[in-house]
Amino acid sequence: MFETLSGKGPGDLAQLVDLMLRKPEALGPEGLATLREGIRGPVTLERVAQRLVDGLSDPEWRVRERAAMSFHELVDALSVPRSLALAGRVLSSFLERLGEEEELGVYKALLGTLTAFAQAFSRMGNLEIASRVLEAFQAQLTSLRDRSSLSEVIAALGSIQDPRSLGILVGLIQQNELFEVCADALVAQGGRAVPALVQSLEKSEERTQRMRVVDVLVRIGEEAERETLALLGDAQWFVRRNAAFVLAYVGGERSALALVKTAFDREPRVRAEAVRALGRLGGIEAEQAFLHALKDEDLSVALAAAEALGKHGGAEALAALSGIIDKHGVFGVSSSVEMRQAAARALGRIGDPGALPALLKGTFDSNPGVKAACQEAVQAIKDKGKEH
Asked: Domain boundary at 143, 160, 177, which?
């Protein structure tokens, strides 16, 4: 048979395409090689592409599936500048079929080829075609009700090497029913997904929303820590703040050392988040950073430092916190009502009897909240003494 097709003319190639779609086992390596060779020319490429587009509407689902999958062979040829008009027409046919296809196997094949299209055109900087694919995927997410199909669309989005696709997935993790499948798609992206996840925290007001982002980053693992550490040097203050928040959960010793430096950031909201993160991670240099932050002119930073010293404080912390309750304490440390309450709670957590003189004095404080905090701290220290 291949003696009659060896001329590689357009008609011969069309016959090969039909054979591939309907009896692929009869095509053989020689026929496939002939087909691949033939699509290099613009005329034959257009005819082969049209034959495959016709196959997308065939009544037999196996033919539709093979047609969709066969376009993988054409992606590189269609992504060159001279083939852009043809690529646009092919894409329109795919997108139309995507909205109508009910057979899951064919649907998956369509998604796979569309993903390959988006990747190829993103690499060459043609954002128009890549954007059309992304918009189509977004439309599918809002119209589909079948969970397996939704999962396929989300997995396809995760396969596209385009920051916009990651942004779509990050937005979807706040939907309960889509969280797991979106998380899996983002985790599969590894470090590439980290900047989008960290920046999304700026739009996440509730702690449950923020912790979903952290959940995904924890699953990404070591890459998440490495990529997030780099964001501590970002020019935008909220990115630095969000990076510090994330490192509290994905970081280790390396992150603790970096956060000590971030505790001196020029932006108080970044300093406060860095201190809170250090309070979770600890580290050999953490206490000195907390003692410095205790003197910060911004109350939120000083309060975060007092809380952290309750977890990691030693002798110096004991003296500084006791001084706050005495209202005259160390130079530069605020002795506001909020700080006196925070210092009392921290001393109660430390549990050192050396804090009792200051705390007992605090039980006579003029502010009821400070008085109650000191009383609770005194009781906590006494209870701890009984345990020993």
From this structure: 160
